[in-house]
Amino acid sequence: MTDDDDIGWALPAFDAGQALVQLQRALRALRLGQRADAFELRDKAVLQLTLEDGVIEAQLARRPALTPEWDRFRVRSGADQRKLLDELRRRLQRWQDED
Fold first, then answer.
1. Pairs from 23-32 (Cβ < 8 Å, separation ≥ 24)
2. φ, ψ for residue 64, nearest 5 deg
3. Could you give the domains of the chain?
4. DSSP letter, residue 64
């Protein structure tokens, strides 16, 4: 790319703290209850979020249970954040269909 192609702006740096606040707001909008760093569906943990070194570490339950099996996700960008929310929405829909 030449200097003539430079459009003069860059994407803002990923702010994990702000992204965590946005995720928490979106999770409450999905009617998940919050207890400490965990989000619950019908009193069963389905998602845990922790902020470590500018990255959000997420654990998403494979299915709601008192002691669930977890899938791990690392949120390092806005795209990762959207992927996590999309996956959570798919699982919530699947769990609702199974009930």
1. 23/49, 23/56, 23/75, 23/81, 23/84, 23/85, 24/49, 26/85, 27/88, 30/88, 30/89, 30/92
2. -60, 130
3. 14-98 (3.30.720)
4. -
Query: Do residues 79 and 87 touch, judged by C-beta distance below 8 A?
Result: no
pTM for this structure?
Answer: 0.82
The β-bridge partners of 39 are 34, 47
Q: What is the pLDDT of residues 18-57, one digit of tens each?
A: 999 999 999 999 999 998 889 999 899 999 999 998 899 9
3-state secondary structure at position 61: strand
